[in-house]
Amino acid sequence: MSKKVLIITDETESIKSIARHISDELTGLKVKICSAKEFDGTDILSADIFFLGCEKPSPKSFSYLEDLLSHINLASRKCGVFSVKEKSYEYLCGIVKDCDADLGYPLHVVSEKIPRPALKKWVQSIVAGKIGND
After folding, report:
1. Residue 21 to residues 41, 86, 112: CA-CA distances in angstroms?
2. For the segment 58-78, what is each residue's pLDDT rounded down to a tens digit?
């Protein structure tokens, strides 16, 4: 049985593009990309790994997700956060903290052209559950 991966975005073009690149690196896994607006709480319960991405901190579309993550325990799940802005990935790390998911180091995308080897290494670190910048 393949692992299920959920990628939740804020629907901005930059974040959707990064989500597609992440999905491309998740070969052999069942991947679902959805916007935070369309997100259903049961989606995250069935996911083994989840990724969160937003362009700006605290987007309105993330309010339900924020509330949900503050009330459930996802200790057995792995999580990666990504953004084009440091404040945004700091926000994402903050909302994941309460759910106890195994949070890897954040991906800060500074250019439209993400170096594939670096992205692949980051995605593999999340899938493997490695914490920190090793």
Report:
1. 24, 19, 11
2. 999 999 999 999 999 999 999
